[in-house]
Fold these 3 entries.
Entry 1:
Amino acid sequence: MTEETYRNPILDADWSDPDVVRAGDDFYLTASSFGRTPGLPLLHSRDLVNWTLVGHALERLEPAEEFAGPRHDCGVWAPSLRYHDERFWIFWGDPDQGIFQVNAPQIRGPWTRPHLLKAGKGLIDPCPLWDEETGEAYLVHAWAKSRSGVKNRLTGHRMHPDGTELLDEGKVIVDADRIPGWFTLEGPKLYRHDGWFWIFAPAGGVETGWQGAFRSRGFFGPYEERIVLEQKDTDVNGPHQGGWVRTPSGEDWFLHFQQRGAYGRVVHLQPMRWGADDWPVLGDDGAPVAVHRRPALPPQPPAAPATDDDFPGGRYGRQWQWTANPGDGWATQHSGDGLRLTCVRSAEAHDLRKLPNVLTQRMPGKPCTVEVELRLDSDEPGARAGLAVLGDAFGWIGLQRGPDGTAHLVHRFAEGVADAERDAAHPRLATDGRARLRIEIGAGARCRFSADTGDGFRPSGPVFTATPWRWVGALLGLVALAPAGQGHAGAATFTRFRISAS
């Protein structure tokens, strides 16, 4: 790779179901955030290769009571990001509630509160289109069979130009049950180009699917279809579901995801051109590229979404998300550095997957070493805090206060089928209430835990292989908790969170 080329993936972590838009010389991307808050991440780039996280469009999930506890695979699914009428717009589907919309005059906000555009079960993956020629507006969405009993079809609506209501009952505009070999058609992105309505939509499932393109002279069809991106003889499985964007000079590019197990859905950038028959050609004649010439845009310094954090003033960076809507006082601001997490009391202290007060960030897609320093500022018996790898199965290492007041090093895990954690290592070393914690994440998301309680890092327990949830990649997490009971249970302080390449 040279300065003139880039290598995929351009975002090597779980930025699921990406969509992209250009406003002037700037490019913006959003992605699914499911049940984590804040939701709807907002990324910025000037060259489509280097991205930084600049904020979130959704402070809390609504209705708030539905997301007071973790719902890891629910919430915000497959958003669409658009720029229209000098505003940014995001539409997404909550499979249990319906289609929502927020908008803002600037990418950093202020964003409106979520507006429910279409209520119903199984309504997912919406995308709006404002036709600049006619002034009309449209919406297309897909279906989740798990909630509606329907899938593999796209429904279209006329929409009020202000994005507040749909103007008809909707019509199936693409029924992929009628297309031989097509299944699980979803994730549509709607465009107008060269006199055609275009729908870019994936099919075939997240791990094995392909990218389709559909075109019609009228929004409600009939549509022709073509497969425009598929694995072929590359090692990029299931390349699909993303967005098309055009640079100021007229170059076309397509961003999409690749499902990579515990690492989630990493983001690739494909060149795009229009063939002699006026159909889009993605990648290398329909196959994903690994290395390619960079977009013809002004050169930018290397950049990536932040991971490290010193937690100045007790504040955590934009890369962190709670596993549900946050409660008051979970993180306390103060005058120094370090994240001060309250040891939240819970009857579910035996299972991190059920806790809303786990502060998480995405696990990198390449081998790395994760470290953090911990001080357990609690005398409450059973109070504990640590560093976790969280998924359908989980493992964590940290400190726990014993009945006699001694702080012990603990390392615990739970399989996907288990309803409670158990010890991963013995004995429990007594400490002074401080420890440096480390997780070395190798190939295949295999995690080796270790800790330094004053005499250097020592490995703990067997190798633990991280696992995703159904739709969400594994997460790194910081947590402080205590058994159910009355009164304040103290706190834990985390400092110097670092992720370094291995």
Entry 2:
Amino acid sequence: MATFGKIETHVDPSEAGKSFPVKTHVMFTIRGESQTGVVAKQLKNAAVIEIDEKKDNEDLITHSNGVVVINYKQMKKI
């Protein structure tokens, strides 16, 4: 039988990811520009980040729907 809807699975983050729990405010670089955001979901080697909206990143927000996936090694806590 097919399962329709959202399936919740628990993902254990890597050692690098344990420093970035959900709701952690982080800084990262995308398209050569420094951005900030909040960890929305942890994955094994990366996290889904909700990008902070600013005047100079409106194009990025539009194209990414406000979220990006960033490797833990490319993030810094702020």
Entry 3:
Amino acid sequence: MDENTTYQVLLNDEGQYSLWPAGKEVPAGWHPDGTRGTRQECMDHVDEVWTDMRPRSLRERMSAR
């Protein structure tokens, strides 16, 4: 992908994030979180919001102890 590609941030049910080229079909199990921009803008957003890299199911199991 080149510098002119617009990306979107995707989120899955486990609370994991991914960058995806805007305009491409979103893979099953993922949905846009509403953030679009350059790769760097999207990476900055993910760095800000994804503070715990553990999958949601693991976080829930660990907090139930």
